[in-house]
Amino acid sequence: MSVIIYPAYFNIHYSRKEGRRVPKNLAFEAKLETIVKAAKALGYQFKVEEDKRYPRFWWKERGRIVIETDEPKSKVIRKIAKKVKNL
Q1: Could you give the CA distance from residue 64 to residue 12 in angstroms, rounded to a whole number?
Q2: From the CB of residue 11, how many other CB atoms can be counted at a distance below 10 Å?
């Protein structure tokens, strides 16, 4: 199963309504490279797609990662956010 992760899910400047999926205390200045480092550190198999955009903000940020996992998307997002905080 694939899980698609956009940097907007972690952006501290976005509200939940705008697409942030983690609590403020786990949010950060989201950059694709940071999320890739965290996914690598967690041992996920993933593919980076730099030409894709978050549909809600199609004119802004570029990039997403597609993670191959059987875990629920919400769990993967939380694990990545916690790992970034520890890096």
Answers
A1: 17
A2: 23
- Are the C-beta atoms of residues 80 and 39 closer than 8 Å to each other? yes
Q: Rounded CA gap, 32 and 22, in Å?
A: 16
User: At 15, is the secondary structure helix, strand, or coil?
Assistant: coil
- Which domains are delineated in the chain? 2-86 (3.30.56.30)
33 within 8 A of 21, measured Cβ to Cβ: no
Percent of the chain clearing pLDDT 70 (strictly above):
100
Q: What is the reported pTM?
A: 0.92
Q: What is the mean pLDDT of the chain?
A: 94
Q: Which helix (H) or strand (E) holds 58?
A: none
CA distance 17 to 27: 14
3-state secondary structure of 70: coil
* Closest residue by Cα to residue 34 from 71, 73, 75, 6: 6
